[in-house]
Structure formats: C-alpha cells, structure tokens
Amino acid sequence: MPSRPRQLFFQHSDDWATDHSALMTEPEIWGSLAFQGLIVDADGHLREQRCCPSCQSTISGPPTSLRVVLDSLRQQSQVTHLSLAFLADIPAALLRV
Ligand SMILES: [Zn+2]
C-alpha cells in the first residue's frame, strides 16, 4: 500500500461550503481525508466521499485513484475479516462487556 500523507490539522470557517470545496482542489489533501465510500451522483458521475477533519461531515468530491481506493478497501476488508474471526473465538460472556 503506498504511503499517504497524514491528515492535516484543519479547522474551517463559518463558510464551511467554501472550505469543503477547497479541500477537494488539492488532490494530495483530498486523498488524505478519511475515505467514506463511493457513490454515483444524480448526473451519473462517480463521486468519492471523504470525511471533513473539522466537522466530521461527509463531503462528496472527485474520485482519486480507483486503484488506491481498491487497495484501501481490500486492506479494510482484511482487517474486518480478521477482527470478526478473532471475536468469533472470544467466549460469549466477554462480548457483553
Ligand atoms: Zn467541515
């Protein structure tokens, strides 16, 4: 998995819509925000959803590299699979805590 820049500290102004748009203009910053999925918008365009580091809302913007998205989803899927396998071996009584 290629290394990605760490998310930058970011606090937006009261004009959050403009600030959200600005996050999308720099591909390296946009790609560093937490990935929240892919959607197809009303016009049929593929959009990528990323989390605003300031207000935690979901922002829909241009897709980054689909290869990077695929690699990231595979990695997340493996983490989920391994975590579920780990939890399956935990005694049920411990899962209530
Ligand atoms: Zn925001």
Major sheet summary line: 3 strands, antiparallel
- Which molecules other than protein and nucleic acid are bound? zinc ion
C-alpha geometry: elongated
Helix content: 40-55%
The tally of beta strands, per DSSP, is 3
Q: How far is the N terminus from the C terminus? A: 35 Å
**Helix and strand composition category:** alpha+beta
How many individual domains? 2
What does this structure look like?
There is one protein chain. With about 100 residues, the protein is an alpha+beta fold. The protein folds into 2 domains: about 10-65, no CATH class; about 65-95. It has 4 helices and 3 strands. It has a 3-stranded antiparallel beta sheet. The longest helix has 23 residues, at about 65-90. The protein is elongated, with a radius of gyration of 17 Å. Bound molecules: zinc ion (ZN). The site of zinc ion has 7 residues, from α1.
Give a quick set of tags describing it.
97 residues; alpha+beta; 3-stranded antiparallel β-sheet; 44% helix; binds zinc ion
Topology of helices and strands:
Elements: H1 16-25, H2 27-32, E1 35-40, E2 46-51, E3 58-61, H3 66-88, H4 92-95
Antiparallel strand pairs: 1-2, 2-3
Bound molecules: zinc ion.
Give a brief rundown of this model.
The protein is 44% helix and 16% strand. With 97 residues, the chain is α+β, with helices and mostly antiparallel strands. It has two domains: 12-64, no CATH class; 65-97.
